[in-house]
Amino acid sequence: MKSKKRKTLGMKAAAAPGIGCGCCNSDLPLHTWLEQSPMENSDSRTEVVLLACGSFNPITNMHLRLFELARDYLHETGKYKVVKGIISPVGDGYMKKGLISASHRVAMARLATESSDWVEVDDWESKQKEWQETIKVLRYHQQKLKRLHSTNSFDKVTPLSKAGRKRKRETGSQLPAGKAQPQAKGVPQVKLLCGTDILESFEIPNLWRAEDILEIVANHGMVCITRAGNQAQKCIYESDVLWKHKDHIHLVEEWIGNDISSTKIRRALRRGQSIRYLVPDFVQAYIGQHNLYTLESEDQNAGVVLAPLQRHLREAAKD
Q1: What element of type H or E holds 191?
Q2: Residue 98 CB partners (closer than 8 Å, separation 6+)
Q3: Which tens digit of pLDDT belongs to each residue from 8-62?
Q4: Which of 45, 43, 36 is nearest to 16 (CA)?
Q5: What does the DSSP assignment read for 55-86?
């Protein structure tokens, strides 16, 4: 009987990873190996929250696709774990031509993300009376995560979940007997998710403050989805600031061509053409219900100087 027991234990140990193989210490007892092996919550990857700012006028399937592409890319590096995605529509104070009310744009974005278990819409930016620089939106969400991290010990060790979704383990619940208490994670990094048109816009005079660009790439980082014809590498090469922090700028190639844009969606709507399969069905229905994107709406803010340019002109006048 004793010999049979020894044989059984030996088979179990051999079946465990790292036990009895030539590349590991086969003399370790099974309980010692279990203590030294990584636990299920010992993920050492940096947690990331992807933040997309923009007009979303209207939100399209391509906007949603950006999040999936970025998450796949970051996970494949083995260095990052994307725990949340945030869509932050710009406020009405941006003064962009053809920009409809933020209330409609937020509502459509929420309809578009209803089926997602990790991408959500935040309306803080859209509710501000004045246009907010992108860096201020990044700071807001980073500080919000820091407050959550410092006040909610449960979220220190549990990936962020979308509002309205049930957690796998409720706050205060006990881990099964014998399970080690997971180590607390640091505050997730908020990274700016965008198309490479944002990189190109850095070169437009008076559109961005130099110090804002520096803070974005140095303190947060960017994930840029590239399209055919975009010269993202050239933008980085020609900017000393971007070149210095190029390791913080992740360029993600979109190999499945997709040229959907909000501008083209609005043009099709003005001409009475179908936009089905270009935007989520709920978004299409919402646009039809509220009769959005007409010839009149496209003239909204016509002749008005874009808010970033207005602010820089005021600052230049003061100097």
Answers
A1: strand 189-195
A2: 57, 266, 297, 298, 299, 300, 301
A3: 444 444 444 443 444 444 444 434 433 444 434 568 999 999 999 999 999 999 9
A4: 36
A5: --TT--HHHHHHHHHHHHHHHHHTSEEEEEEE
